[in-house]
Design brief:
Layout: H1 2-17, E1 39-40, E2 49-55, E3 62-72, E4 75-78, H2 80-83, E5 92-96, E6 106-115, E7 130-134, E8 160-165, E9 180-187, H3 189-196, E10 205-208, E11 225-228, E12 231-238, E13 249-253, H4 254-267
Antiparallel strand pairs: 1-9, 2-3, 2-5, 3-4, 4-7, 5-6, 6-7, 8-9, 8-11, 9-10, 10-13, 11-12, 12-13
The structure holds arginine.
Length: 269
């Protein structure tokens, strides 16, 4: 009887394990293959990172949708494509100071969504920038909720940038429950355009990606920060798949969108 039980449980275990996706069987500490080449980080190292959460239906709860960055206590910088289809700002929350994708933190409702009026005017994803005006100011601290400085100057080719988020850890894979970070070199717009095709990369965009691939932002990281020397230089925007050597990640270029960003913040503060 005991032998039969053992045989049956073994058979069950073998069968079940072949149905569990590899990603799920990884523990929090096993970082191999995590975020398309990234590593576990902590919100205290990226205290400007927020999780934008969206309530997709009346009975739904707020769920992580995109990343974003705190630029003033009541203004979040994010991507236009994260918010352009959202009808009502009440359906959005911003969560600051959280390590986990759907974990606890300072939750603040959004008062107003403003995205670039020339978003996708002539080129797909051009001017992919937006701000969220918060209903109340975030209470900043010296630890896990802080503003980030925005760059005035476009980063140059090969400078190392740092990207963070709770997005999927492989192309078409599962999102990460914990905040991940990865370093990727800046790719020139000319090089980037030669890969994506003439006219697809314009001045409002910035590219970054490892020559060998394997490191990138992915679905769910959108709207989140790309830092160069600790300053905000890009906003996660788009890419062809994720972490493919032939296709760098594409970001909205903060330096090139500064005029719009500054004017829009000023008009809403
Ligand atoms: N559009 C995606 C999002 O909404 C982000 C894509 C970034 N892709 C990339 N390969 N870098 O989350």
């Amino acid at each position: 009887m005991l032998r039969l039980f053992l045989i049956l449980t073994t058979v069950f275990a073998l069968t079940a394990s072949s149905f569990i996706p590899a990603e799920n069987s990884k523990s929090k500490d096993d970082l191999s293959g995590r975020i398309v080449g990234g590593k576990l980080t902590d919100i205290s190292k990226h205290p400007h990172q927020i999780s934008m959460r969206y309530k997709g239906c009346t009975t739904c709860s707020f769920n992580h949708r995109c990343g974003g960055s705190i630029v003033t206590p009541n203004i979040i910088l994010t991507a236009a494509h994260c918010v352009n289809t959202i009808k009502d700002a009440k359906l959005l929350h911003v969560v600051a100071g959280s390590n986990e994708r759907n974990g606890h933190g300072s939750i603040v409702p959004v008062k107003k969504i403003i995205y670039h009026e020339d978003y996708q005017k002539n080129v797909r994803y051009e001017n992919d920038i937006a701000i969220l005006v918060l209903e109340i100011e975030l209470v900043l601290n010296d630890y896990d909720i802080k503003t980030i400085k925005m760059t005035e100057k476009r980063p140059s080719q090969n400078e190392i940038s740092q990207i963070t988020g709770w997005g999927t850890t492989t192309q078409g894979g599962y999102p990460s429950d914990f905040l991940l970070e990865v370093d990727v070199p800046i790719v020139s717009n000319a090089d980037c355009e030669s890969r994506y095709g003439i006219g697809r990369i314009n001045q409002s965009m910035l590219c970054a990606g490892a020559v060998k691939g394997g490191k990138d932002a992915c679905q769910g990281d959108s709207g989140g920060p790309l830092l160069v020397n600790g300053v905000l230089a890009g906003v996660v925007s788009w890419g062809n798949g994720c972490a493919r050597p032939e296709y760098p990640g594409v970001y909205a270029s903060v330096a090139d969108l500064r005029t719009w960003i500054d004017a829009t913040i000023k008009a809403n503060s």
